[in-house]
Specification:
By secondary structure, the chain is an alpha/beta fold. It is built from eleven helices and 16 strands. The protein binds pyridoxal-5'-phosphate.
């Protein structure tokens, strides 16, 4: 049960030579903090962009809305997928041109549509007749793309049927849009977030391609195929490098769709996750009974302060402590709040060092996506995730 000697621990400690890790090692923190490295985001953009060839990236702002990241991506030439007036304003405030912003939420407030239209945003998503009516009223003549439900997602974080229309309703939605004076500009779908292997896209693309060809045959001069997000991040299971992954997806697209005038991709997680790590603290290590096989480890960050994606234990983060290399045992991992749902991993416990104690620092790797944007304003008085952008 004893931890190994400190020297042995250090030798076994994995060496991560990235800027965020170095910054964390050199500083102290009085609350959970996401440290994210802008250069790393820039490199990821370049890799995805190279792999995607002619397709245009519209970064999904919700993954990490840090203004510094939006600004960097503006400079790189990225477009933006925004879901609300506030996200559009953020992009504009950081220098994005309105024609490079798509309003990709299929559930939009009417006043937000008016705002976007008057700001010069031209491209809107819809998946229902009522939304098309709203767009026609508040953004007359706009370009619309119709989002489709896709089945058979092989993603770790599949998106539900909340968004998209069934294949059978697509023809009537396109006809309706045209009758309303809108431009039937394209189709979109989302393969599901954290789709680890490019080959997993094939069954989804197989569903969308016939609909694309049928719509064009029916006289809709579709210009845009929006392939959404789904680009993976490394959480411990093997993934392809971003450039190779993106190129493989584009090859699958080309094989089924031929020469599409414009392809758009909306990476969120794949753009920012690996650029950031969270530094947090162990608040308590305990057992519920003497003979419990596992310990309970409580952190000062939980489901409500940034780790919402542990819901369903779908996204499994990697943890680094100073005791790594020593003997480990299974732990239920939980957050600090007084809500019983604030458990991060229980069904599949996490292996953590037996030497782990309260007060120890714990680093959660590759957390740049869907953490700061998911943190509550301060549930139970625990401060929301702090963000440092390098
Ligand atoms: C969230 C979202 C994305 C980003 O998805 P990732 O899996 O993080 O890449 C892209 N497009 C739309 C419409 C989204 O809602």
């Amino acid at each position: 049960m004893n931890a190994t000697a400190p020297g042995a621990l250090r030798a076994a400690f994995p060496v991560y030579a990235d800027a965020a890790t170095a910054y964390i090692a050199a500083n102290s923190f009085d609350r959970p903090t996401l440290v994210i490295d802008r250069q790393r985001v820039g490199a990821q953009y370049d890799a995805l962009n190279a792999g995607l060839g002619g397709a245009h990236i519209h970064y999904a702002v919700k993954a990490n809305p840090a203004p510094e990241i939006v600004r960097l991506l503006v400079k790189k030439g990225s477009g933006f997928d925004a879901a609300s007036r506030q996200e559009i304003e953020l992009c504009l405030s950081q220098g994005a041109r309105p024609e490079n912003i798509s309003f990709g939420n299929t559930i939009k407030r009417a006043s937000d549509i008016s705002f976007a239209h008057s700001a010069g945003v031209r491209l809107f998503a819809a998946d229902s007749e009522a939304e098309l009516d709203k767009i026609a009223r508040h953004a007359p003549g706009a370009r619309v793309y119709i989002r489709l439900i896709v089945e058979n997602s092989l993603a770790d974080w599949p998106l539900s049927r909340k968004f998209g229309c069934a294949a059978g309703t697509l023809p009537s939605l396109l006809d309706r849009a045209r009758a309303l004076g809108l431009v039937t500009y394209g189709l979109s779908f989302h393969v599901g977030s954290q789709t680890r292997d490019a080959s997993f896209w094939a069954p989804v693309l197989d569903q969308v391609a016939p609909l694309w060809h049928a719509a064009r045959a029916a006289g809709h001069d579709l210009q845009l195929l929006n392939i959404g997000g789904g680009f993976p991040a490394f959480y411990g299971q093997t993934i392809q490098a971003p450039r190779a992954y993106a190129a493989a997806v584009m090859a699958l697209v080309k094989a089924r769709f031929g020469d599409v005038p414009q392809v758009m991709a909306e990476p969120g997680r794949g753009m920012v996750a690996e650029a950031g790590h969270i530094v947090a603290e162990v608040m308590l290590v305990s057992k519920k009974a003497q003979d419990d096989l596992h310990r309970w480890v409580y952190l000062d960050i939980g489901r409500f302060s940034g780790l919402a994606e542990t819901e369903g234990e779908a996204i499994r983060y990697q943890f680094i402590t100073r005791h790594d290399g020593g003997e480990t045992g299974p732990c239920v991992l939980a957050g600090p709040s007084c809500d019983s749902a604030d458990i991060l991993y229980e069904k599949r416990p996490v292996q953590l060092p037996l030497a782990l104690r309260d007060g120890d620092r714990i680093v959660i790797r590759n957390c740049g996506a869907y953490t700061s944007s998911y943190a509550s304003v301060g549930f139970n008085g625990f401060p929301p995730l702090d963000v440092v952008v390098l």
